[in-house]
Design a protein that fits this description.
It is a single chain. The protein is an alpha/beta fold. It folds into 2 domains: about 190 residues, FAD/NAD(P)-binding domain (3-Layer(bba) Sandwich), CATH 3.50.50.60; about 100 residues, D-Amino Acid Oxidase, subunit A, domain 2 (D-Amino Acid Oxidase, Chain A, domain 2, 2-Layer Sandwich). The chain is built from 9 helices and 18 strands. The strands form 4 sheets. The protein has a 7-stranded mixed β-sheet, covered by helices on one side. Helix 7 packs antiparallel against helix 8.
Length: about 325
Amino acid sequence: MKLFYILTPSLISMGKIEDPIIVGGGPAGAYCAFELARKGVYAAVLDPSHPREKPCGGGISPSAIERFPFLGEFRSKGGTPATLKIISSTNQQIALIKNEGFNLSRQFLDEQIVKMATNNGAKLINERVFAVQRKQNFWQIKTDRQTMTTRILVGADGIRSLVRRKTVGHISRKNLGLAYGYFATGTENEPTTIKFVAGIPGYIWIFPRNNHSSIGIGSELKYGVALKRILDEFIHSYCPKMKVISKFSAMFPRATDPDFFTLPCAGNNWILVGDAAGHADPLTGEGILYALWSGKLAAEVLTEDKLNSYDKLWREQYGNCFKKRCTQRNTFYGK
């Protein structure tokens, strides 16, 4: 992809020119930058938060490993319980399944993907973006230190994406979920555990990592006020010796409306990936797989300068499945 500019005085005044700019350096943005760099396009990734842990279970599913085999190289750095335990909402049914995935600290995972990108030529700029605005056919991005300009803007800036708000609009509350939980010790020898919750479309998880666990609960945003109580009651009865390191809460994409996946995630000079696009499994909440997947697809259309083909690609490859899964919540959770 070769980009040419006519440097008029008005364009020069808009700030340093970078192309493309990716706002957000999590798995979606960093992997997009990595794939671009492999194709000779060196993006600037704006993110002030690395290194950081993210409110997330950190489960790496077999499907994610199959599609992105490099993830398997990190298995030894995470928790690899041999068993996946699934507990019904009534506690009367317990299934023990061979666990083919593993659990990983998001700080470690995100750092590794950023290194993949920067080692291949992408630039990580540790600055916070506080404003994006269209200027002529370009985007002006203001950080806490400078003003930059790009022809192509990639929004990988999470659930509260500035880029999304300036393009297709924010994600509505009915298509959001809430997670609450703890990073803790004392359950590292437990199997990876999923406990369905009576009365709500959600579940509790215990994801043992290397030297600690992520223990949390996730459901639709409207059930948020009950989540802490439900989780604490479970911990009191199931793992009372757990010792809390820190607690977390965060919103995440959890679409309930199939029409959500008919909204555009790209235009002539912008594209959304990962949580900014709302690309997470509507039933399970799995997001890492689709962060990488959307980042890869975005890099493909960017290098071919065919951004308008992005929506067709992600819908064909997983979006239409997401639409169907929106209608399966009651069956999946036994409501």
